Amino acid sequence: MAVKSISKRRSSVQSVVLPLIFGAALITAWQTGLLHILLNTDEYVLPYPTRIITIISENTDKIMVNVWASVQVAVLGLLLGSLLGYLIAIFAATFPKFGSGGLTIVSAFNAIHWTKDVSSEAEVRSTFAKIIVVTVVSMASMSVNAYRGLTELPVFSDDLMKTYAAGRLTEFTKLRLPNSVPYIFTALRVSVPGSVISALVSEYFAEYVIGVGRQIRENILIAQYSTAWAYIVTACIVGIVMYAILMVIEALVMKKRK
Amino acid sequence: MRFSKKTMAAMLAAAMIVSAVSACGSSSGSTGTTAAATTTAAAAGSSDSGAAMSDSDRIISAAQAGKVGNWGLGNEYEIFALLTKYGQENKFLSQAFDMDGFDDDSITLASAMTYNELGLVKNSYEGGYGYGDTVGIIDMNNEGVAMLEDNLFTTKAFAEANPNTVKAFVSASMKGWKYACENPEEAAQIVFEAGSSVSSDHQAYMASEVKKLCETDTNGNKVTDYGKMDENAMQQTLDLAKQYIKLDDSTAAEKLKSLTLDDIRSTAYWTDASAGKFDAPEKKDVSIQLKWLPQAQFMGYFVAKAKGYYDEVGLNVTIVSGGGDIGETTAVNNGTVDFGVTWVSNLISANAGGMDLLEIAQVYQRSGLVLVYKK
What we know:
By secondary structure, chain A is mainly α. Chain A is 81% helix and 0% strand.
């Protein structure tokens, strides 16, 4: 018993400490120029971390404007895509009946002023176009995973439902829906990073010039690699924070279910 | 039971929103928000008085409706200078590399290069929109906001190590440019055969327009020395660049402010090349990276190669086409290629960012950028 808990603790220490050591070593090699020698590149194309951090700290306001634009696209696209994906999964799981309370929710959605701070027609158009890209990307993983969650039921539960002659609706709410929740999180683990990446890429080609991804491209093209790196680092932080938020929500939801 | 209704209602809502979004895409201009509605109304109101409109009215009304287009990515500084001149906010719509946005009126003042997009808008050959004389232009040179574009550059280190190669390359290239400008139709054909990205008709149009850019300065005077660096036009380009290139990196921004013409160009190589004062090249196999796909915009280099001018000075030249997101400044700076063609403003921002590039000839003597509008 004692041995087991020690080894458990050791493995959790390893899983945290080792990546930290690796990260620290990498950043040290980067800052001291060792990485540049290893990768045969110069400090121009790969600026030192201190310079990148300086640029980020000097431009927080501008960076946050771009972060907000990207996050808005990523989150709205993710929600829309996931809902749509789930819907597709239900169709595939052949559940035909829909509830009637739809209108209340539709009006709730209408109350959200998605575009209250956009200044032009092109910005609205552009934002929608980008959201659609993220929607399509997020939809796929949700529909596949949710379908599994809705159909791969524990045999004993299925039998129990049949024993009580439960209706399809009861079966859906009491069995299929709860059963699919872990699968929803499996899907989100894929589609949250996916939504950030697709939001950044969709900005490359958007009509309205804004967003973290677009800033990376603009700065590389005018040969401002240090600034481009500042936005690359920002993009990483956005992705990590969104993933961390998902982990927290997942932990809370799954704990409640227990 | 309540829970299930809510869930399904949410799904229904999602489906409805998606259909609303797709409807939005197909009927652009009626997005329904207050902001969008007012801008549409403003644009419609201003186009009523179209016939009597002056260029300044045009610029102001398009700017206020947010309908001035440019490609961005380092091509926007002259537009910023123009907008500032007329007291407008420095903002533009991102324009694709075709003129569809101009065609469908989502852009009222669209950026166009005289030798490329303007031809596509006016002419009715393959790929053209056939507007003919129903379109008008606002010329950056006439507006006093011209910045010089296509040049020839290398790195300072390469120029110092291989002065004769540089002079020989400039000499043969400018001989190519001279021949191309004197025989634009033949030059267009040479480019077309060298692997053109556009039709031969458009190539011929491009050659005739590029000739004008090589032989006329920003004030409209005739230029006879191909590749010469006009001191005043270079200085104006640098001054406008310092004013309108915005760099987030404070180190680069400070360097930009301190740049002088001597930091970005040397006239020595061109002067010696023109006088024929150079010896055998130190490096014989050299390459040049174009700013874009093969087209008459770069006809001088294709002609010099096809006519054997490079062979005459002992050079074996490879022409590398551009067009990707990795710019010509990066390619020259890291030694992938020896020479490059870029816009002066791009070279300025690259040097501000820490590159050590040197302009050795200025092929285009005036700005080729115009804003095109429907009359």
